[in-house]
Amino acid sequence: MKKFLFAAAVLFSATAAYADPVEGLWKTKPDDNGKFGHVQIVPCGAKICGTLVKAFDETGKEVSSPNVGKKIVWDMVPEGDGAYGSGKVWAPDRDKTYNSKMALSGNTLSVSGCVLGGMICRASDWSRVK
């Protein structure tokens, strides 16, 4: 039994050591309608994805939304030094999917993306939820 517990502890430690620093819960900036959300960022195989887990109105009150449970971020590839690229981000307020990249700096995640060959772009800083 002691060997099993030791092996489990080593496995847990090894898994935690390889967690990507971007993993966690992020608060988006308010959209065009003043609404914002919480996005849970997790690994999806070798890539990074994020799902909207809560939605809030312009006053900060949690609201129900048909978008909760939907992927907001997918196919992000870790590039090192807090950079992520080659991914997609869906903006529910405009119902557009952007070719996207992200940059992590401390508790700020800068998310940016473009559509139409780079003619229309958006950027937003998300903050880590503690």
Structure notes:
The protein has one helix spanning 2-17, and strands at residues 24-27, 36-44, 47-56, 62-63, 71-80, 83-91, 96-105, 108-115, 120-128. The protein is mostly beta strands and 130 residues long. It has one domain (20-128): Beta Barrel (Lipocalin). The protein starts with a helix and ends with a strand. Residues 4-17 have low confidence and may be disordered.
**Portion of residues within helices:** 10-25%
Query: Class in CATH?
Result: Mainly Beta
Q: For the terminal residues, how far apart are their CA atoms?
A: 36 Å
The CATH topology corresponds to Lipocalin
Low-confidence stretches: 4-17
User: How many helix segments?
Assistant: 1
Q: What is the N-to-C order of secondary-structure elements (H for helix, E for strand)?
A: HEEEEEEEEE
Number of domains: 1
Radius of gyration: 17 Å
Structural class: mainly beta
How are the strands of the biggest sheet laid out side by side? 1-2-3-5-6-7-8-9
CATH architecture assignment name: Beta Barrel
Mean pLDDT: 89
Total beta-strand segments: 9
- Strand coverage percent: over 45%
Structural shape: globular
Biggest beta sheet attributes: 8 strands, antiparallel, barrel
